[in-house]
Amino acid sequence: MTRRAQNLNSLVRGRIRPSMNKYNLFNLYKKSKPNFRIMTLYQQKWASKQETRAYHGEHIKEHRWQSLFEKKLKGVAQLDASLKGNVPSTPMVLQTFASLEKRLDYSIFRALFSSSVRQAKKFILNGHVKVNGVIIKHPNFNLNPGDIFSVDPERVLEALGSKKPNLKESYKIDKLQIINWQNYVNNVKNDPRKIWEKKLEKQKKLNSLYKNLNVNDNFNSNNLINNDDIERKKNMQDYKLKKLREIQNSIDRKSILNDIIKTNPSNSIDDFKSQFGDKLSTKAFQIYQLIPNSIKNLQTDSDLSKELLKIIPIYKDGKPIGEIYDDTNSKKIRSQLSELHSEYLEKIRQDFQEKPLAQDELIKIWSENLKKHPTLPPFNEVEEKGSYYVKLPWQRGMFGLANPNKSYFTPWKPRQFLPVFSVLPKHLEISFKTCHAVYLRDPVARPGESEVISPFDEDIHERSYMYYIKNGM
Amino acid sequence: MLGRTIIDSSACSAKTAGLQVSQVRYRRTLAYPFYSKAGNIPPARKGRKQTVFKRLMDQFLGPKNYKGEYYLNKYAYVKTNHTTNYINPRNERGNALLESLSEFDVGEEDDSSSFRRNRSENALQPFPLNSKCVTNLQISNETKARIVDDILLNKIPSQQVALKYGLKIQRIEAILKLREIEEEWEQNGLIKGDLKRFSNTLYNMFPLYNPEKHAENLTEIPIPKETLQSRFLTIAESEPFGPVDAAKEFNLEPAAVTLERLSEGGEHSSHHSNAKANKDGSFISTMYKGDKYAFKFTPVKVGNVGYRYGKVFRDNRKDRKIAYDAAGNKYYPIE
Known about the structure:
The structure holds two protein chains of two kinds.
Chain A: H1 22-30, H2 41-55, H3 62-68, E1 76-78, H4 81-84, H5 104-110, H6 117-125, E2 129-131, E3 134-135, E4 148-151, H7 153-160, H8 167-190, H9 192-209, H10 229-250, H11 253-263, H12 270-290, H13 293-296, H14 301-311, E5 315-316, E6 319-320, H15 328-354, H16 359-369, H17 379-385, E7 391-392, E8 395-396, H18 418-421, E9 428-431, E10 436-439, E11 445-446, E12 449-450, H19 458-469
Antiparallel strand pairs in A: 2-3, 2-4, 4-10, 5-6, 7-8, 9-10, 11-12
Helix pairs in contact in A: 2-19, 5-6, 8-9, 10-16, 11-12, 12-15
Chain B: H1 8-16, H2 52-61, H3 89-92, H4 109-114, H5 141-153, H6 158-165, H7 169-187, H8 193-205, E1 220-222, H9 243-249, H10 255-262, E2 283-284, E3 296-297, E4 323-324, E5 330-331
């Protein structure tokens, strides 16, 4: 039978447990070494036994543990030790609880497939664990070297993921997020530049604060920053394309010819360079030379447009409307103009691709694309329906309930304080991709190191070992 | 002491009597943090009634944001650059926040920095009290792929691969086994979505193994039971006496032989032959015309199987020995 779980994570008692609980974290953090100097030998042994047993096989009753206890401790000798010289001593006493590490429930906890040994035990009893492809329902199943054990990935994700919020909690958080978002959009519309600068500053600060930490990309203290880079880039591309089309549509042969005449160069190509670039300016100049002087010297715009219509007429049903110049010179102008026209459009497109957007433009695009979120329905309606619609730049679907059928926070994110408790064991080889692990061998002690994972040092383990070998008791 | 005692009156009387050990039958020590000073009681969380311990814990964890995350605690989030994030209470003394909450909090920062030890030295040590416990290093995906290629494509025996990468043979065999499972899962499209996110997160939070820097010791053999005790032998002063003589004296095989034997195991080793040898001596009898079943015969010793007549049969004993059969069912072996 399992030991009763009563007040396991008491802060007053302050024992360290095999668990990833946050209370356990604080108990681990504040732990000090027992002061053996003021204790009798038996007190020392008793205190050590209390401390170590609270971590090693906490859920196993004392009598059962004493039947599992092995007096003989396992260590390895290194044959090249004599070549190295000055080899540290082997901490054999840290193997006191090594016999527990063979157990299936402990191996699952060590392989980081569960958040506590008690949870690992539950996984086994509920049939989520297989050893060599066979479902094993006994937490004290002893593994042999070479055994492959696996846990259902859904259970592992649940164990190491954040807690799934219920509908009410999700709703509360989303409501707050949406209110903040609306305020933010309002502020942006009022003064985009100021908020933009504030945003950049904040992003910089957060980046330095959370350097190399896996903070969810949606994280920030009031969630006002649009981090969805892909979306933003897409928006900018759309805007660029739109603007490009506008410009391209406004250009035809007539407008180019008009531009050429208006430029009125003093017999040199350079004046065309600002508009047409190096390559096309010669072509533009050639066209300019072909144009008869009578047209060049026209003063008013209306006269000029009339003349231009005669060179480049509007076609209807394949036939030009009105009077046209049909001489060879005009034909030459027309053919050269159409060449220039297509090349000029190509040039504009290239320019757009290469030219980055100016900051003003960026801010404009960004502020124009921010849209308010529709307000959430009242909670009693949501409760009846079971879900509600949320689409924020950093979040699709309800908070933590993107897939409400899963038993963990979706999309998955690691539970808090996971790095403190994640210790890779040396006696297991783990594949997190498939939630499988191989039991390599029983953990051993070698010079300067012990493979049994324990928060207590040799002093405590030594006294604990003394307690269990029962010499002189 | 683990903390301060709550029975001050009795402790006082012991002190006045000049005794080190207070003479009380049951002394309950409260687990105060080692860094907290007497009388230092942090304020309670807004609008709540909290015990002193809960307040100290909240002070350590820091504030929560509206999503319920301890967003300022430096241990709350996992790392993404293959480094660990283990606690270091001896230097911080309770101040585990990424940035101080107010300008009044920064007072103790200066005096602690004077004896700040270099965390990078024991970055692999997860528990501050136990310097003998270190986390394992993770083998990178590229190294794993190379090991698999070496063994399966280039057909290099596992002993040579073990030497090349500084990894024990069991670990190399395990990598191969897991690789097979991973490939099968990938083909079936099972590694996706949240599981992929999970495995990437965990891959990024553990330090990576570098064969040149962290090679395992490949000359390890289990310490024989006999050598744990001393044995005395009288020999002449001129008589040479080395490790091989000692092994003979203990009735043990020389360590080099043990090491060689240990490295022979494994499916991909050079010693492995494809002909499957029946170590236990079992065989399947030939079937003749009209036989319905093929019989398998396994030699066993009387006493090792079944109930031996006259043996004490205490099936109501507490904490009996437990064994499991191949199907994972539990049974009580007859002792």
